[in-house]
Amino acid sequence: MVAALDIGGTKIAGALVDAGGRILARARKPTPAGEDAETVLGAVGEVLDALASSPHRDAVEAVGIGSAGPVDAARGTVSPVNVPGWRDFPLVERVGSAVGGLPVTLVGDGVAMTAAEHWLGAARGHTDALGLVVSTGVGGGLVLGGRLHPGPTGNAGHIGHLSVDLDGDPCACGGRGCVERLAAGPHIARRALDGGWRPGPDGDASAAAVAGAAREGHPAAVAAFDRAARALAAGIAATAHLVEVDIAVIGGGVAGAGEILFGPLRRHLADYATLSFARGLTVVPAATGTDAGLLGAAAAARAAF
């Protein structure tokens, strides 16, 4: 049994997860993202306390945490962009103290999603896989040689900040032309707006609204998703050429666009994944849904045993 935490800018979720991936207890609190560090930690503590009321609590052997990043697993610290009160916050130490010294494993949220998909989702049975979370940002993780490969700091596979356009726009990370800068939801929406698309009467200017317009054939909406798909294809192919993954699993809100994203992505992938060992690379939607963060945190903790 593992206690899992999924920590993001809007919610802190917790679960007790057994060896078969069944969630036997749940807890959830809103993230007090605008508050100070101890207040945010207090919400984590409330989630852990709720899990401790479960009759399964005595079977818990470890804790896994999947957190919005940046994370530094080597130091046990987190600095989530959307939780400004936590900067180099010693989350592993503080959670470890709260759970009586049980081992605590920390990974980034993209790595957690990848772990979930390899354990129970679309990458199950694959020895080498890339996972991507395409939402307000673009994150990722790797499975290599049949094992989760989080890297020394828990960030390996962070495809969102792989540069695919050397003369592209500056990215928030300090780089230029990053996958995230072209394929994240807000950038898809901005590209569509720049191309002449306009929201409907409800004022919804999200990537989901752009996807709806693309389904109806709006040229600027179609072009915005095509550009995002091409950036993702370039990043996925570069990763496959570097470490020989044979499947890429994509989750996150933007993946909800379905074939509006996956159709052009697969077409562009054929132009980028050109080496013989990468041509068979497949791209599929994630299968673990909203529980991916919790299941992935549990999987990462199990892998660290």
Automatic annotation (TrEMBL):
Stored PROSITE patterns: ROK
Domain of life: Bacteria
Family, per entry: Belongs to the ROK (NagC/XylR) family.
Protein name: ROK family protein
